[in-house]
Every structure is written in structure tokens, then in C-alpha cells.
UniProtKB/TrEMBL annotation, chain C:
<dbReference type="GO" id="GO:0033794">
    <property type="term" value="F:sarcosine reductase activity"/>
</dbReference>
<comment type="function">
    <text>In the first step of glycine, betaine and sarcosine reductases, the substrate is bound to component PB via a Schiff base intermediate. Then the PB-activated substrate is nucleophilically attacked by the selenol anion of component PA to transform it to a carboxymethylated selenoether and the respective amine. By action of component PC, acetyl phosphate is formed, leaving component PA in its oxidized state. Finally component PA becomes reduced by the thioredoxin system to start a new catalytic cycle of reductive deamination.</text>
</comment>
<keyword id="KW-0560">Oxidoreductase</keyword>
<comment type="subunit">
    <text>Monomer. Component of the glycine, sarcosine and betaine reductase complexes, together with components B and C.</text>
</comment>
<dbReference type="InterPro" id="IPR006812">
    <property type="entry name" value="GRDA"/>
</dbReference>
<dbReference type="GO" id="GO:0033795">
    <property type="term" value="F:betaine reductase activity"/>
</dbReference>
<dbReference type="GO" id="GO:0030699">
    <property type="term" value="F:glycine reductase activity"/>
</dbReference>
<keyword id="KW-0712">Selenocysteine</keyword>
<dbReference type="Pfam" id="PF04723">
    <property type="entry name" value="GRDA"/>
</dbReference>
<protein>
    <submittedName>
        <fullName>Glycine reductase</fullName>
    </submittedName>
</protein>
<comment type="similarity">
    <text>Belongs to the GrdA family.</text>
</comment>
<dbReference type="GO" id="GO:0030700">
    <property type="term" value="C:glycine reductase complex"/>
</dbReference>
């Protein structure tokens, strides 16, 4: 079987402190209930600067300048261990400051909903025009058009016709509602959707800059965030994927959106793998932007514990899946793990379904996998909030499963965890940490011969949608490419066609010789 | 503890009374589990939700504490693996301090 | 402790989820009157 491959991955982070204050749901909920709350008062003293966000070790890992293993050697708290000489530009991506991102939001806005104040707009236009990855982006000239006046922006915000856009604590723009009373097109929803679109656009542009893939070569895009776009008659109608591809010049692509909470990216990658393996589409990109709603989600606990508010990052990624090239790591489509409707909700039922069952199918033991990438949330964010160290808990569950299956001695559990585990380094942006942040690193490590295979695991809390109590999970193995053996796997039809062509050619030479 | 859940627990406590209603927790670590136990007993210490300053006097247990009462086969199937994953003693010690 | 009691379950996505606790407390003779699973991520 010729498996599809992962040809490249790109990652983006955007520091969005002002959005955290004004659009993060923890803050908007607090403001609604208790506008004079102590939390809101204290919060702004706990924000960090852009340089602090850039030099934060987990962020450097996310964009590929450091490896997850490097984090093991840095004692926590990581926010007190800045990486010296850290750059916003990374091997796998980039960290963008909020002002440039606000400019990008206006560039990707197709319905004149984003209004930026004139001076601010001129300033960010200069920055984006000089940005190595974005300087040629479609519709850059929107930043020369229709600037807003501050009085008008203030009026729209005060009359609740628009979401405010702040930078450095100053009102610099707004996102207007797209319909008089349709809640699906409210300023709040449009703000979130434009954040999702703009951040996914940035990730896709980074993918084109970091890999050989050209925009016109993309045939299909699967967007897998947790947002919904549509109007009141089709609230989740879509299609983020094509909207993103349009800005990035993917003229030959179509696309669609896939949803399953945090498990969305893993589902989307399996779909992309199937499309590439069957040859339906040669080049498929799976991507997702970030969620402004989740900014500062656990900030109350961070403030209470005297920490910086670390959930100030929007995350995004774009991953290229293609036909087997004999080089890039393959996706083992013969062993996809899935949490079935009948699997059950207990942690061991979930882990059995998504980790043990697919390994059994491929004839591997749990300990045959060099690295697991479950939900890679940064523990420095989740532990103070009471959710524990999520990747570590997942590693222990995988180890405990191996113990229960008799593949591992209980006394070796923590040793196994240290071997196949890694510290979490991704921001708590729902779908963003879910398995995918390690894919870029895994490609490097497989290419460098450091590991042979890794399992990517996505898990999703479907019960949050209040339609089912079910859990969700999907996994797949990425593995060193077997090279020629894998690609020399001709089908009978291909061989027949080759023989027929050879006979035709031979016949032609006979005719021309006559 | 989630604000919506605080409201639901308050409602249930009013309906069934503190003698009949027991809260069972599945928290991943000690502090958060203790916080939930405290919230349903003496009130929300973070003063964020409907149980701020409301002392329901409910007893809360972490599911790990109730092992003896549960069908062993079911416990094994549903919970036992997590005994290897979470800090069981730490969680139990924290939760029981709020039962008075 | 559980026999004949009404039980409200506060499960945790990254600890023990609600439905797993439901199965357990039912086996101990309790009636589940509320079950939820919290998610911090």
C-alpha cells in the first residue's frame, strides 16, 4: 500500500493581549456580571510584553526554534526563564504582534466590517508591506482604503453596533455587525470568525514560505477550527477553508470545514490522508486559526497566583498532506484509531479505542511507538487552573494501559512516560494543542533518524455542545518512509497501461521502419 | 467551579435537602477537587458564582473515596486505570477536609 | 454513603468524566439526579 505523506507543517502564534481583555469570554462574562470586579482591575497588570511572549520557551518550541525535548532541561516556571536572543521568526513559523494581526484582519475582511483608525492603519500597512511572508498578500491595498475616524468608531462601539479593537490600551478600530438583528452575523461572531480566518491565512502563508508547496498546487483545504460561520438560516454553513484559500492564492483548490471540538484536526488529517492516498486530490492542506474567545480563559487563576496571564496567544497551523514521495513521513492509514459511539466514556475505554486498538491492528505494542503527541497543552497554563498537567496525564494513561495489557511492568511506568512523553508547549486554544503541534517536530526527528514513529492523538469534549454526552478521539501513526519499496507499489492497472504503452511505441517503430 | 453548575447544585440542594443529596467529584487534581467540595459545602470561596456566601452544607466525595461501595467489576472498568494516573491520596486528603 | 441517595456528579474531562462516575454510583444503589463534565482546556 502506498501511504500518503506529511510533506510540511507551519505554525503561527499571535500575541493578542488587548483581545484577551476585551473579547476573551472569561473577561466578557465577568464584565457582564460584575463590571467592577477585582479580577478585571488586576488583570492588565499581569499582561506580558511582545518580547516576553517571543522569548517564552514554549512559544519558541511551537514555532520550531527549540524542540519539545529542549523544554525538559528548562526548570519551571518557564515564564521566568526567557530564551536569550529569541526571535519572532521560527524554523516552522512565526510569532506575530497584535497590531500587525489587526491589519491582517482588515486585509482578509471581504465585507468592510473591520474599521481601523487612519493613523493606526497607515502604521500597520507599513509593517505588513515589509513583512517577508505577507508583503505580497492579496488585498494588501485594503490598508490604504476607507480609514475610520475615531469618533465614528467610538460611536459604533458605544451603540453596540461593533466590537472594539484596542491596541496598547487605545481604541484603534472596530468590527461591525454584519446584519441588523441576525445573531449569527453579530459583531461578536464576526470578530471571532475574522480572527479565525486571519490567523489561518497567516499559517497558510507561512506554510508556503517554509516549504516547496505553491499556492496553485493546493487542490483541497480542510479547515478544522471550532468556529462556525453562516447566517441565521445556516449558522454553521461554512466555508472557512475556501475563504482562507482565496486570500492565499489557492486558485485550484476547493475545500470544506470539519468539526469535532479539539479532535477536529486529527479527523481532518485522516480525511486529508484518505484524499491524498486515493489520488482524489494530490495536495491537501489541513489548517485552523485561533480562538479569541479562549484568550485568558483561565486568567482568574493566573492572576490569583501572581503569574503572568499566559493565555495571550492565538494559535494557528497549516499541514500539507500529499501523495507518497518516498521521503516524507507516511501516515499509516491501515491503523487509524477512533473512539467509536459504542466505545464508552471511561478514560480507559477512550484510550483503548484510540491508542491500543489501532496498534493491535498494525501489530505494534504501546512501547513500540517512540513518541506520543496527545493534547500538548502547556502545563504552566493548566496546572494553576486545576486541570492538571494534561499531556503528562495522557502519557500516564497510555503507560497504565500498557501495564494493564501486560506490555509494561508497573514499576517501569514513569520510565516509559519519560521515554515516549514530552512537556506540553501549546497554548490552550482548544483544537490547536490537540496532537498537531508536534507534527513539524516529528517530521524533523524522523528525517534526522531520532525516532521512527509517533502517534498523533486528538481528543474532543463533544458534551460541551449539549447535544450528546459522548467523548471523541482520533489517532494516527506517522512513520519513517520506507522509501522505494513503498513507492514501487504499482497497481495491476498501471502495469497493464505501461505494457500497452510499450507495445504501442514498439508498433510505431515498426511502422516508421517500413 | 463552573457557574452554571453552581446554579444547578443550588437548585438540587433546595429540592432534595442536604441529607439526601451527595456530590461526587471526578477532578483531575487536589486543589480543584477541594475547591469544588468547599463550594458545595460552605460556599464559593472565589465569590464568582451563585454559591458565593451560600452554605449548602452538602457532603462531597471524590469517586476514588467511594471505591468500597462500587461494584468491583464496574470500578475496574471505569476508574481503576486513573488510579495509576492521578494523585489519589493527595486528592482524597484535600476533598475530605471540607466535610467537617 | 451512596445507597438510596440522590447524587450530583461533577466530572472532569481530564480526570474522571461524568458518565464513568454515573456507572459507578448506580452500581452502589444511588440515583443520579445531575451529571456533568467540566473542561478547562
Amino acid at each position: 500500500m502506498s501511504f500518503p505523506v506529511i510533506k510540511g507543517a507551519a505554525y503561527a502564534l499571535i500575541q493578542a493581549s488587548n483581545m484577551l481583555l476585551h473579547q476573551g469570554t472569561t473577561q466578557t462574562s465577568e464584565r457582564r456580571k460584575n463590571p467592577t470586579s477585582e479580577h478585571l482591575e488586576k488583570l492588565s497588570q499581569h499582561l506580558r510584553s511582545f518580547q516576553e511572549a517571543v522569548s517564552y520557551p514554549p512559544n519558541q518550541v511551537y514555532i520550531g526554534n527549540m524542540t519539545p525535548d529542549d523544554l525538559k532541561d528548562i526548570p519551571r516556571p518557564w515564564y521566568q526563564a526567557p530564551v536569550s536572543g529569541a526571535s519572532r521568526v521560527g524554523k516552522h513559523g512565526e510569532i506575530m504582534p497584535e497590531d500587525e494581526f489587526l491589519g491582517l484582519m482588515k486585509i482578509v475582511d471581504a465585507f468592510d466590517l473591520v474599521v481601523l483608525e487612519e493613523e493606526f492603519q497607515t502604521g500597520v500597512k507599513g509593517k505588513i508591506s515589509a513583512h517577508p511572508v505577507l508583503k505580497n498578500i492579496k488585498d494588501l491595498d485594503k490598508l490604504s482604503q476607507n480609514p475610520g475616524r475615531l469618533e465614528e468608531i467610538s460611536r459604533l462601539v458605544e451603540e453596540r453596533l461593533a466590537q472594539p479593537i484596542y491596541f496598547n490600551g487605545k481604541l484603534v478600530g472596530c468590527v461591525k455587525k454584519a446584519h441588523e438583528f441576525d445573531e449569527a452575523l453579530s459583531d461578536h461572531v464576526m470578530f471571532e470568525n475574522l480572527v479565525g480566518k486571519a490567523s489561518a491565512v497567516f499559517a497558510l502563508m507561512l506554510l508556503f514560505s517554509r516549504t516547496e508547496l505553491q499556492p496553485h498546487e493546493v487542490e483541497y483545504i480542510i479547515e478544522c477550527s471550532e468556529e462556525a460561520c453562516g447566517d441565521m438560516n445556516q449558522r454553521g454553513g461554512g466555508n472557512f477553508a475556501k475563504a482562507v484559500g482565496e486570500i492565499c492564492g489557492c486558485v485550484n483548490a476547493t475545500g470544506s470545514d470539519t468539526r469535532s471540538f479539539c479532535a477536529g484536526p486529527a479527523h481532518a488529517l485522516v480525511e486529508a490522508a484518505a484524499l491524498a492516498q486515493t489520488g482524489i486530490y494530490k495536495n491537501v492542506v489541513v489548517l485552523a486559526g485561533g480562538a479569541s474567545a479562549k484568550l485568558g480563559m483561565n486568567s482568574k487563576d493566573h492572576v490569583k497566583k501572581g503569574m503572568p496571564v499566559l493565555e495571550d496567544m492565538l494559535g494557528a497551523f497549516a499541514i500539507h498532506i500529499g501523495e507518497n514521495d518516498g521521503i516524507s513521513p507516511v501516515i499509516r492509514t491501515d491503523g487509524i484509531g477512533r473512539h467509536k459511539i459504542g466505545s464508552g466514556a471511561s478514560p480507559q475505554a477512550v484510550m483503548t479505542a484510540i491508542v491500543a486498538e489501532p496498534l493491535d491492528k498494525m501489530g505494534y505494542k504501546i512501547t513500540d511507538v517512540d513518541r506520543y503527541s496527545p493534547e500538548m497543552q502547556n502545563p504552566e497554563i493548566t496546572v494553576p487552573a486545576g486541570a492538571g498537567d494534561v499531556p503528562l496525564a495522557n502519557y500516564k494513561m497510555i503507560g497504565a494501559l500498557a501495564v494493564k495489557r501486560g506490555e509494561l511492568d508497573k514499576s517501569d511506568l514513569m520510565k516509559a512516560v519519560a521515554g515516549f512523553g514530552m512537556p506540553g508547549f501549546a497554548p490552550t486554544q482548544g483544537h490547536i494543542p490537540s496532537g498537531v503541534p508536534f507534527i513539524g517536530h516529528a517530521c524533523d526527528m524522523i528525517r534526522e533518524g531520532k525516532i521512527t514513529r509517533a502517534m498523533i492523538v486528538g481528543k474532543g469534549s463533544l458534551f460541551l455542545g449539549r447535544l450528546t454526552n459522548l467523548f471523541d478521539g482520533v489517532s494516527f501513526i506517522m512513520e519513517k518512509n520506507g522509501g522505494k519499496e513503498e513507492t514501487s507499489d504499482f497497481s495491476k492497472e498501471e502495469i497493464r497501461a505501461m505494457i500497452a504503452q510499450a507495445m504501442k511505441d514498439f508498433a510505431k517503430t515498426l511502422i516508421s521502419n517500413e | 467551579m463552573d457557574l452554571e453548575n453552581q446554579a444547578r447544585i443550588k437548585e438540587l440542594a433546595e429540592k432534595y435537602g442536604k441529607e439526601d443529596l451527595v456530590v461526587v467529584l471526578g477532578g483531575a487534581e487536589a486543589e480543584a477537587s477541594g475547591l469544588a467540595a468547599e463550594t458545595v459545602s460552605t460556599g464559593d470561596p472565589t465569590f464568582a458564582g451563585p454559591l458565593s456566601g451560600v452554605s449548602l452544607g452538602l457532603k462531597a466525595y471524590h469517586i476514588f473515596e467511594l471505591k468500597e461501595e462500587i461494584d468491583p467489576e464496574i470500578y475496574d472498568e471505569q476508574i481503576s486505570m486513573m488510579e495509576m494516573v492521578l494523585e489519589v491520596d493527595e486528592i482524597i486528603n484535600e476533598v475530605k477536609t471540607y466535610r467537617g | 454513603m451512596l445507597q438510596g441517595k440522590k447524587v450530583a456528579i461533577l466530572g472532569d474531562r481530564d480526570g474522571i468524566p461524568g458518565p464513568a462516575i454515573e456507572e459507578c454510583v448506580k452500581s452502589a444503589g444511588a440515583e443520579v439526579v445531575f451529571s456533568t463534565t467540566e473542561c478547562f482546556v
